[in-house]
Amino acid sequence: MEAALRGLQANAATTSAHSTDVTTTTTTSSSSNASKYVPITGAGTPVNQLFHSIAAHGQNGSDHQKHLYAMLQAMTEVLRERKTEPSATAYFAVIMTTLSEDSYSTTPVSPVKNKKNAGSTPSSKQSLPSDKVIASLVQLLYVTMGGVPATILQSKLNDIAARFEALLARHLASTAIAKWLSACIATLLQAQEQPAWKQRTPLALYQLLLALALDERVKVRTEVQDQIEKLFLQGRIGQPAHTSTLQFCTQILDTAKQGTDHHSTQIAMPFLGRLLPYLNPNSIRAVCEALLKLPTLGQPALTQQAFQCFQSLFDSTNNTNLPSSKYTQQLLQALWQLQPSRADAKPTIQFAQLMKSGHILFHKLDKERCAVKLPALFAYLVDNFLSDTASVAQATLHSLQELVDRTIDKDMINAATASLSEMNSTKNKTVAPLIQIITSISRGLSRSYKTSWSYILRLCGQLFKKLGSESTTLMSQVVYGLDSVYKEVSQADAPVSGPTSMVLAQDEEKDENAKKKRSSNPNNNNNNTPSVGQPTVDAQYALGAAIEAMGAPQILQMLPLNVPNTQGKADRAWLLPILQDHVARTSFEYFFNTLVPTATQVRAAAVDANQKGLGILSKSLELIYLQIWDLLPRFAILPTDLPMVFPSIAKNLGTALTEEPLLRPYICKALTALISYPLTIASPSNANRLPSQVAAQHIQNVIAQAISEDEEDGEDDIKEEAEAHIQTLATFARNFVPILFNLYGADITPELRTQVLHAIHAYVTISDAELVNTFYKNVIQKLLEAGGGSAAATGTTTRYLLTDLIVPFVASLHQDNLGFLWKLLTSQLNEEDNKLRKKTYKVMEQVCIFHTSWLCSNREALSVLLAQFASGSASTKKGRMECLLYVVKEGSIATVQEVIAGVLGEILLCTKEPSTKTRQAAFTLLVAMTDRMSYPVTHPEAMLSSILPPSTQKKSTGDDDDDDDDDDYEFEEDDDEDESEEDEDSGDEDMGIKRKGTQKALPSTNQRTTRSSTQVSAKEKRKEGNNLNATSFFLKVVAGLAGSTTHMMSGALTALARLLYEFKERLEVSFVQELISTVAILLSLRSREVIKAALSFVKVSLSVLPPSVIESHLPALINGMLTWGGEGKNQRFRSKVKILLERLIRRFGFDQVVKHVPEQHKRLVVAVKKAAKEKRKQKKTGQQQGDNTQSKGGTWIVEGEGDNPIDFADPRHVRNVVSTNPKNAKKKTGKEGKGGDVVFQTDESGRLIIEEEEEEDSDSEEEEEHNPQQKKGQKRRREELQNTNNNNNRAGGGGGRGGGRDGGSKEKGEKGEKGRPNKRAKGEIEAGYYKAKGQTKGDVKRGRLEPFAYVPLDPRHLNKRRHHQALGSFKNIVSAAEKGSQSGRKALSVKRRKQQQSASQQQQQQQP
Question: Which of 324, 395, 310 is nearest to 357 (CA)?
Fold first, then answer.
């Protein structure tokens, strides 16, 4: 292949020139029109679409993009001067003519003798700009060839190929030219038909691409490899090219076998893996046989590369050249002999993934043969869980999960079920493959695999989900294994002391945590599972999957609760929280026939224990009683036997609601679930009437499970079953609704009242109109009696409850009743009770949702919402805006305009409310208004969408520069900077915007609607609204900038920023330019509130607007921002200004920004640039460190056991050649394992093997013997430390281990205060002890930074029995300190007396 490259050099001189004038014109135009925009042709034409990405970034892109655009403009000028219609063919002719002249390189390039020098710096005689111009021309040529008709490329094949070869020979040293010219050659080959491949030219070009595919330069070979793969994918490769490809692959393998050029092999082998799936079957077989020989060479690197090639073959999506099932089986058998050693982690992981992919392909080709081979693979992979390396276990889990998902099908499951039946009825002992697989997995639940139980438990959970209801027959032994595993791991996590109370308390806490998880993410049932590594949680996951697959009755039959524990058996109260999370679609009768009697027995046992004075046991049993009843709402999720069972149990439920206060929450939840789930299936429109919090959390999963159980009829049967449930429940509405009404008005907790209200709401939804009307009138009458029509009303609490009780009836009301209801609600709005007004707005919101047409047609009713309620709280403003939201969405344009005229100013002020929910409601309403007030575009060229860059910028233009890494935004909050003051947080939080990738908050408005038009996502609406103009509504918001207060100005700026983010495509360029100029002026104001909003607007603008719109306003923006980013009083926004400066530099470049910066602020801009550069450098360094974590390679041979030598003729000897040093392999010898737990080796019976370690003192003594030059001072200090450790820790009954009951025993050889031997534990230090060196006294420690008196931290002091002993340690220090202070005071007083005496004596002597 290198000969083809060298041959190009000789052909370079034969290239001829055709048109010098075009070349000169192109050069002149490209330099003069670099910054001048020249339109190519009309919008929407093929040429405009072809060069759209180049034109979009020609003015404001990188230097390379600008140069590319200038070249395009120059060629456009040439075509216009020659009066030629711009087309892809015309541009192609101009570029080819220019390249054939090649006048930019007056000096020929020296031939490249070696590919390794291809990327070196060109000769000094070569003109550097010429390479840049030619690279741009070739890139434009590649873009242009995509629009040239294939017939032209076919007819001019030889001429184009000759020019390409000559150009590549001359400029092979240029990376950019080689890259784009290779892409042009591939495009030329894509246009050729199959007969053309019989000629010499296409084959020569293809061989040239194969040679460039192994180029030393990454960019070149990556582009070429992608283009060759594209040729194969499109089927444009002829038979001669297939032959050349096979020869190319054979040459790569021969080079690899010789082992002379390892670097070339590392480059070639991955490309071989990409080519392998596209070869014909015979070629694949030949290459595979050569690949199988590489692992036998004993080189781990070659083995790894060979496995990667096989992996590419197995994972390929090319279904045309798949090997036969027979050969695939032979290939897998050959690979099976190449198992690596399990001590070598990386080859083990790679081999597991390889065999997984191979068997998935084998299953795709022949299911029956693959089923026979799967048990051996599962057994091998399960044994990988014995590895000490976590990465091996993790990779094994992923491989097994994919095998379970893609190879275990219904035929395999049916065969296993039939095999079990035959084994039970006949003497046939043939074991089905699936049963063997289950046996291998269940073996992983033994104690030998304890360190990997988390992974195996997750695998068991997925297997339960795969088998479904057949798990009852096939997975019974696994269920018993899960029971044993859970008991052990739960005891290890939380040791139990005493009866079952502690376990129950722990289960209650886990139950509460599970409820919190469900409430935080209600629509994520199966995916809300924690990561692997928590055995207790993973065991709960596996048991939960078993419950969902087999059903709660079957699980409880195999694992009975055994409560109350009267027979001495271990109870399984821990199973109740797991049942509560996973029970669904099971027998409703089982709960009342089995679990209710059990709960009754538990409650009787609790009462008996309480009478006997066993308070703890009594509380534990009461908790079990409530946990059993807490299962009722789960059993109420689409039960399979409701129509038959509910008539017999309805009376008991009603009695329990009346007489059992503890059971009321569970019964209310059950009634709600019984109605909401089938209603969602049978009548989704009526289900919208239910409150969102009552909507079925797992409804989609339950429906999918129900359909999977009966695939023949599917959704039709489920819908009929749901309708039967609703009819059965509706017949008892007259019985349950009065009970629920009485319970709602009783003295109950707020939580229970909410659940009762949900149950009433559910029953009202399915009740007949007559019953609903009767109860509604009753509620209205009681509300009037409570003072609903009087301004000075009494009975406030009753009015709160009755107002909430109206909500369930609103959806079912006739329009004739709405007028009186609206008047009643209006009278309540005129009162000063904010809580009552808030509840009134909730009722009005329901009217707006279900009766929007009535509200929009009734101007008197609409005027109530448009009236100003300035005295209302933030919560009432939120409710009012939520009502107006539905009016704006569903009302006519005239109604929307009326709403905007009445409330726009108030909404702008609400964007500055302290309440987050109120602000979010204001932004949501503003977005809805803008969407409704957008009109069709009349001048598309004036819109901002015409110059916005496309999302495929880099891919379309082929730009190799790095992305700007700008921050994208989504809804909600953005906290990317820390302010020194609390009120200086990011302004994006005020706009309801957040960075992309962070968690989205739930919208504050009600998500329920009655029209499908309002259910369209915001992204889809923006896509549909690209042809709309929203400038007129923006002008109304801009009017708020002229407000009389800074609060209004700040709110208007904040609203404009949010709307600019949402609707930038619907704005005119001129309006955006004027808006930015206005914001730049506002930056000069002295209002802190306005400045904060203005900086936030600039931040959003930099993120969503193209640079061309902002560039002309850079001086004003920079000067305005720097006013608030300097030192002194204006530095409060310094951090915000720094972030904005960093984005400006990233977007426009440092030179473009710094020229507009005043001299006194240039140091700040330079510091920002340095900080950003350092940040990028650290990020890049961190990535490089992550890529270079692999250790240096090596090869070791693991000898065979005993006297058996290694047979290198056996292919299986590969497992004895490892790339990990066996001496460094981790062993389970009592060192810390995962999670800090100490792990020991075990024998075959499971007993621990604990080896005693040598004392550290012996090591130090040996070190002293072998190091005679050791300083004596070090040895002396060590001896003193040993003496210190062996000293008595007690001082007057103080701390340490000698106090308390252990104080009487003393160690032989040591004597205490009275000559008695002292007993001390090794390593204990006496509190306050210090041994002075030599004859010195005092508490100074030379060279050691330790206090002279301290109490060492000892966890044994936490023991309650040693409480007094621990206190003694501190008492000794305190008493010693008191003695020291007393002696110090005495010495000081003596000293003072002596000084006074000497002073008096001197005075006496001086007197005559």
Answer: 310
Q: What's the CA gap between 846 and 812, in Å, rounded?
A: 11
**Residue 1291, φ and ψ in degrees, nearest 5:** -140, 95
Q: What is the per-residue DSSP string for 911-947?
A: TT-S-HHHHHHHHHHHHHHHHHT-EE-S-GGGBGGGT
Where residue 1319 falls (left for φ over 0; alpha for ψ -120 to 50; beta otherwise) is beta
| CA distance linking residue 760 with residue 708, whole number of Å | 33
Q: What 3-state class would DSSP assign to 1352?
A: coil
Distances (CA, A) of 258 to 251, 252, 261, 302: 11, 10, 8, 11
Beta-bridge partner residues of 969: 995
Span 716-746, pLDDT tens digits: 778 888 899 999 999 999 999 999 999 998 8
Q: What is the DSSP letter of 1232?
A: B
Tell if the pTM clears 0.85, that is, is over it. Answer: no
Find out whether the peptide bond into 129 is cis, omega within 30 degrees of 0: no
The Cα 592–Cα 632 span in angstroms is 9
Helices (H), 1267-1362: 1272-1285
Task: Judge whether 314 and 406 are in contact, CB under 8 Å.
Answer: no
Contact between 627 and 574 under an 8 Å Cβ cutoff? The reply is no
Query: Distance (Å, rounded) from C-alpha 497 to C-alpha 515?
Result: 27
Q: Say if strands 1248-1249 and 1241-1242 run parallel, antiparallel, or are unpaired.
A: antiparallel
**Given phi > 0 = left and psi -120 to 50 = alpha, else beta, which region is 468?**
left
d(CA 910, CA 990): 11
What's the farthest any 2 CA atoms get from each other in the chain? 141
Q: Is the dihedral of CA 54, 59, 64, 67 positive or negative?
A: positive
Cα(930)–Cα(1030) distance, integer angstroms: 6
* Gap between the Cα atoms of 561 and 557, Å rounded: 9
CA distance linking residue 608 with residue 70, whole number of Å: 94
Query: Please, what sign has the CA dihedral across residues 1043, 1046, 1047, 1052?
Result: positive
The structure tokens listed for 1058 are: 């949010």
* Residue 814 structure tokens: 């006739």
CB contact at 8 A, 878 and 918: yes
411-464 confidence digits (pLDDT tens):
999 999 988 887 766 666 678 999 999 999 999 999 999 999 999 999 999 999
Rounded Cα distance between 347 and 392, Å, is 10
**1253 alpha-carbon distance from chain centroid:** 45
Question: What angle, rounded to 10 degrees, do the helices at 596-611 and 615-629 form?
Answer: 160
Q: How far apart are the first and last CA of the chain?
A: 124
Dihedrals phi, psi of 111, to nearest 5 degrees: -60, 145
Minimal CA–CA distance to 637: which of 664, 674, 663?
A: 674
Which distant-in-sequence residues (6+ apart) come within 8 Å of 176 by Cβ? 131, 135, 138, 139, 960
Percentages of the chain per state (helix, strand, coil), in multiples of 5: 70, 0, 30
In the prediction, which pLDDT does 129 show? 43
What mean pLDDT, rounded, does the chain reach?
75
Pairwise CA distance, residues 1225 & 1214, whole Å:
18
Are the C-beta atoms of residues 1006 and 844 closer than 8 Å to each other? no
> Is residue 1346 classed as helix, strand or coil in its secondary structure?
coil
HSE at residue 281, side-chain half, CA atoms within 13 A, is 10
Instruction: State which amino acid sits at residue 386.
Output: L
The alpha helices in 630-749, defined as continuous H runs, are 632-635, 642-659, 664-682, 684-687, 699-709, 715-730, 733-744
Structure tokens at 1151: 């030179």
User: Could you tell me the CA-to-CA distances from 694 to 699, 766, 839, 1152 in Å, in that order?
Assistant: 11, 15, 19, 57
Contact 276, 321 (CB under 8 A): no
Q: Can you give the C-alpha Rg of the chain in angstroms?
A: 41
The one-character DSSP state at 786 is: T
Enter the DSSP assignment of 594: I
